[in-house]
Amino acid sequence: MVPYFFVSHAVSGSGRRDVEHFHADLQAEIRARLGREPRFDGVLADHRGLDVRAGPPPTTPAMNCRSLVVLYSQEYFRSPRCTYDLSVFDERMSWRVHRTGDTSVAPVGVVWDAAGLPARLAEETARQSGPTGSDYPRHSVGQLIRDPLARGGYIKILRSVADRVLVAADRSPPTMTARDVGYLTPFRAMSRTSAVSWDVHLAPLPVPWHSRRAGASQDPAPMGAALGPPDSPPRTRSWFSSPGEGERPILRGPHG
Q1: Secondary structure (3-state) at 68
Q2: Dihedral angle sign, alpha carbons of residues 206, 207, 209, 215
Q3: 229 has pLDDT over 60
Q4: pLDDT at site 102
Q5: E strands of the chain, at which residues?
């Protein structure tokens, strides 16, 4: 089943109950508008019991969901699994831009925990989904959901998020297969001791040209290793070009 929306997050422990509450509220809001058919059901990320050191999973709902809801927190950008979800959806958005020229599709961001987030990300996310005159994102959704006195502000944000989910689902990007993932260069998860600017971690990484030699490894070079020149210059791809050996097609079909 193709999820109507996928909530990607890095919340664990006791905070997960709040995330489940948010997911249930968002699902109820969408069902109230569209109906209770299974095609409008969303999925909540569940990383419990998974070994983060094992690397990203072979599949993720971010590969075919109609819209991606991201609960932003500092831990989100430190989680390899979360940055993998974001990388997958970012690649799908690039395919849509190439096909249609429509740059309006984006993940539906929610400031779940503003502590440690770059101010530009929190402010832009709040501008898109926060009610005018509210103290969001200073009081983020992860805080508002626990405060009975802030119920009105939380509901306004929830409805705004639902509005954006509906718009994003109508402009759903092409789906991705497990084979396509082999050509993906994921975002780097941010180290807890990293001194690199947040801008570097939030910006998309360019997808490198892969050698077309038979059996060439797709694994990235170890950190610090010198990168040698490719066997031959990268071949320019165009809308009408046919994929060469070892290359994936530029586009895949949209959701049916």
Answers
A1: strand
A2: positive
A3: no
A4: 85
A5: 5-8, 42-44, 68-72, 108-111
